[in-house]
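Weekly structure sync, notes
Attendees: PL (lead), two postdocs, one rotation student
Agenda item 3: pending single-chain targets
PL asked that the sequence for the first pending target be pasted directly into the notes so everyone works from the same version. It is reproduced below exactly as submitted, 328 residues in total.
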Amino acid sequence: MKTEELIKVMSNPEFYPHNPSSVEVIQTHISVIFLADELVYKVKKPVNFGFLDFSTLEKRKFFCEREIELNRRLSPDIYLKVEPIKIGGSIVEYAVVMKRLPTHMSLKNLIKRGQLSRKDVERAVELIADFHKRAETSREIKEFGKVQNFRKNTDENFEQTRKFIGITINEEDYRFIKEKTERFYERYASLLDERAERGWVKDCHGDLHSEHIVITPEKIWVFDCIEFNDRFRYIDVACDIAFLLMDMEFLNEKEMSSFAFKTYKRLMEDEELERVIPFFKSYRAYVRGKVNSLMLDDPNIDESEKERLKSTAQSYFALARRYLEELS
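Predicted structure, written out during the meeting:
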């Protein structure tokens, strides 16, 4: 079944057994999310970007199951099950079924309303630091954090964004970021490799930005980790926290980002953090620029939304450059 047909079917409240009052649809570059009152149904799009492959129903089922398993590490109470989506008695898709979180309390929305407190940030960073301390590592995982392997991520980013030169990134910025990335590897290869050997590379979250953290007075949820490609999770913990720090700065919360950085550094006792964070923040900003750019090719997204995505991508790419300008 085509994505647009599935969206039409699953947008109808009568489709769901719990009879929601309404259904809201949200799209990302890889998923369609149906907000059906207290439940969320998340369906993977049949796409293959190279770094992820959801091209068959069997693969989408596998990664739905993987998503449940991995996200229960941080939010076991909201990831409920994988639900087969049946139409006319046949399974046409699979969905991750979750409890709906109060996303108006996401870290991003708290920032937008000017309601994010230092206590909120401290609680969130404490949760993340504890997760990083407990996260699994192994000889295989450590290898992913070494330069010869990690650079596959940046090489892939540059290859996949080449087509967007002149659209979401200008050629001069593209070349600058690419050259400075290479220079960083030349200068700090031994440091990154040593950090991997010492156990800083772990099975992390991989997509730790402000929309994936919900903060209430009673509880904090961190959700929606990377399930589709292990090498995006098998990273230096500094690369994981860098995503959140970058995203807070993108939302003009530099002071809170600085406080989060200092809190995380203290909790992790990582004296090398300052040397690697600008590079990892640049990498994370570039990833967000790429993700927003890729959505421009999605026929299910309307033109007004694509204009917004284009502008957002341009801003992320510009931020990626500014971080690298900080490096000597």
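Discussion points:
- Residues 3-99 form a domain with the Phosphorylase Kinase; domain 1 fold (CATH 3.30.200).
- The chain has eleven helices and nine strands.
Action: rotation student to compare against the earlier draft before next sync.
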